[in-house]
Records
---
Amino acid sequence: MSNVKPVPTPMSASTSLSIRDGTPLADGAEYRTVVGCLQYLLLTRPDLAFAVNKLSQFMHQPSTTHWLAAKRVLCYLAGTYTSGIFLSRNNPLSLHAFSDADWTGNRDDYTSTGSYVVFLGKHPISWSSKKQTGVARSSTEVEYRAVANAAAE
């Protein structure tokens, strides 16, 4: 993957992965290895959280479509290998949190994914992207759950 063309985002905005997408891979070991390695990068790369969360949902039965999505994340990393969290001395000590959720974003079970990021000054110090356990009745309920998770952090 040393001569790949870098892409600007880890996952395309139009990508909607499902368990029924593509042809199942004959051996999913390589897919699981790649996604497992990407999970370690989440410690310093919050920009990968959503994409890796989505890819992790298909570890038990990956398909060709999921493999292509994983390769896109690797192409993104090829163009951003010098990026990371940089803390400066002149950082004001103000705490800000942002949250978001996608209502019924999962086409398989209609659950939502809630995400948040917490900044100390202008630097991210905590983030999460988790699939919510229940199906929400409204987008307001989903957003409330995401805000509650961010506030708890």
Note: The longest helix spans residues 64-79.
---
Amino acid sequence: MIGIPRVKERIASSAEEPIAQTDRILPVETLTVTPVNRYSVSRTYTGEIASLRASELGFERSGQLVEVLVDEGNVVETGAPLARLDIRNLQTQRQQLLAEKARANAQLAELQAGARSEDIAAAAAAVRDLEEQLRLQQVQRSRRESLYTQGAISREELDEFSFGEGALQARLDQSRSQLQELQNGTRPEQVMAQQALVQQLDATIADLDVTIAKSTLRAPFTGVISTKQVDEGTVVGAGQSVIRLLESATPEARVGMPISAIDQLNIGDEKTVYLGERSYSATVSSILPEVDAQTRTQTVVLALESAAASQANSGQTVRLNLQESIPTEGMWLPTEALTQGIRGLWTSYVLVPEENADGERYTVQPQSVEILYQDSDRVLVRGTLQPNDVVVASGPHRLVPGQLVTPAQ
């Protein structure tokens, strides 16, 4: 039982003192016991400083490095430009794509507007012209047939006019079809195809813009430039390290704690942690939900104050002290109020008033108690003691059951 060796030491140190006789009224120090339903225990949990981020930064494409904007030791913010590649060829490609897009948009506008009235009028005139030519050819063929019947012309001359009429009919059909197409306007399929071409050019330009944007290397997080790997003019490959960046964020401590202790913590609680012999303020930033299968603990993440940044190193041991409240029914007594009993129990003496003694004389009665917890020079006990009992606070080894005592003034 916790605290029993210390109680035994206190009893042994005074074991040689003589026991008083029952007929002698002894003055004794007293106290009134009060029940409690919980007590606090100071516990220390160990953890370590979490590793901060460190990144080797490079470009996603190869190219010539034309500008390095930072030096070693510089502090940079998230998104700050660090270095740039040559993008002149990309800019030329972009101008070419913009020109192709302008032409495609012009063609799309023409298709959506349909044929011009002038083109329709010209096509209609061509149809009328061919119709007149065809009628003339038909009249001439009719005359040639009459002459052929009379034997005035040969069969060859008649065939020439017959085939000429067929050719004109074919040309007329073609012109009528073209006129009808102009009058009906552009087909929806043609408009949709041209729109798709414009969208394709937009996507190509957007992809090129992404490549141009990625030609500028930017800081993924706030930190300090640790190393500059290459200088201007160097041709770097895709993924090659150009700059090493170390995070300069507030250090975090990760501490494993049992679930019973976790229940007493809340996000935002202010706690004190120790790095070596120095103490720092820390805030509970998160409680990880996973429970370690071996240690049965959860991890608490604490953000340390900025003053700890220069002292905290990744992997360094950190200590967290907590006052844990444990629900237990009992009463507090000084260790000097106990004497060793039987069967592993302890004895305290309760004052019982004598009849007609006007509160000046009492007898002592033993009460058996069990020690639950020891805190320095006091112990938490439970047993046959009752709330508000008046107990001898020190020197119980001088007493025997029924001893006459009086409270010390």
Note: The helical segments are 4-13, 88-113, 117-150, 155-184, 188-213, 259-262.
